Amino acid sequence: MNSKKIGKLIQGFSKFSFTVLVMSFFIFIMIQIYSTVTSSEKLIDSSNVNAIALLIAGMSLPGIVIQLMDIYNYKKRNTFTLTCKCPNCRQLVDMKMKED
Prior knowledge:
Elements: H1 3-38, H2 40-44, H3 46-59, H4 61-72, E1 79-85, E2 92-98
Helix pairs in contact: 1-3
């Protein structure tokens, strides 16, 4: 096997293992929520409810990081170039537009 085949094999295995990890995490959360809601003893115990809240908050951290990075990169505005024909002379005209 050459290095490209080994790299593709490792990449495929890592994608598969990440998918299994994420799916097992969601299944664990669903089982935790179902067992807490159906059992009156667990619903009264605040540690189970706090654990569920912390797990759900942990799932939202990547979205929070992305939003903070967008705020940080707000000053970097995208510049778009538009090419169209002039209505009078039919030559191509380049117009530059900045994102607000």
